[in-house]
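User: Sequence recovery, please. Input:
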């Protein structure tokens, strides 16, 4: 089920479900957007699964600890993005639901409210764009079926214009830092 249209949004805090595409250029703005995403999820009593690299996790945590109390932070789970995407030995966007039983104690799917943020990164690998587009299309189906909010974030410098256009076909929202 490919997304039929792409809606540009300025603030992620107003979204509660959908498959969001985010191209970032400014690392500080990126970290702020992740923190805003987490806080808006916590305000809705949602678990926040953040698939991120080891460089950004400490920056995100530092800001969160100033804004959110320790008990609420228990609903924020970080997963290393390399482990997440290469768990099968080959680049693949996995369903966040495949990981939930291992991430959240007392996991029970019917009453669990969850949102996910994934920083998509890869090494220089041939044919990655085809694998990535297949995985994004699969993720789009899962997001639509489960009615969750899922952000896929890409470093703008690592994505060609053609690839950006292809990614837009499998998301229904887009956030640009230009605002």
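Assistant: Recovered sequence (179 residues):
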């Amino acid at each position: 089920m490919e997304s039929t249209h792409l809606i540009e949004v300025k603030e992620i805090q107003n979204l509660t479900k959908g498959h969001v595409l985010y191209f970032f250029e400014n690392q500080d703005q990126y970290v702020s957007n992740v923190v805003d995403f987490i806080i808006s999820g916590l305000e809705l009593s949602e678990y926040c699964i953040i698939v991120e690299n080891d460089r950004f996790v400490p920056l995100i945590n530092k800001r969160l600890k100033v804004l959110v109390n320790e008990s609420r932070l228990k609903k924020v789970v970080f997963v290393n993005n390399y482990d997440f995407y290469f768990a099968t030995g080959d680049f693949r966007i996995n369903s966040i639901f495949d990981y939930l039983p291992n991430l959240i104690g007392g996991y029970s799917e019917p009453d669990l409210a969850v949102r996910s943020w994934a920083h998509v990164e890869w090494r220089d690998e041939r044919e990655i764009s085809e694998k990535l587009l297949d995985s994004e299309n699969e993720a789009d189906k899962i997001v639509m079926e489960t009615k969750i909010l899922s952000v896929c974030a890409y470093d703008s410098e690592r994505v060609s214009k053609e690839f950006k256009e292809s990614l837009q076909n499998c998301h229904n929202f887009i956030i640009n830092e230009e605002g």
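The longest helix spans residues 128-146.
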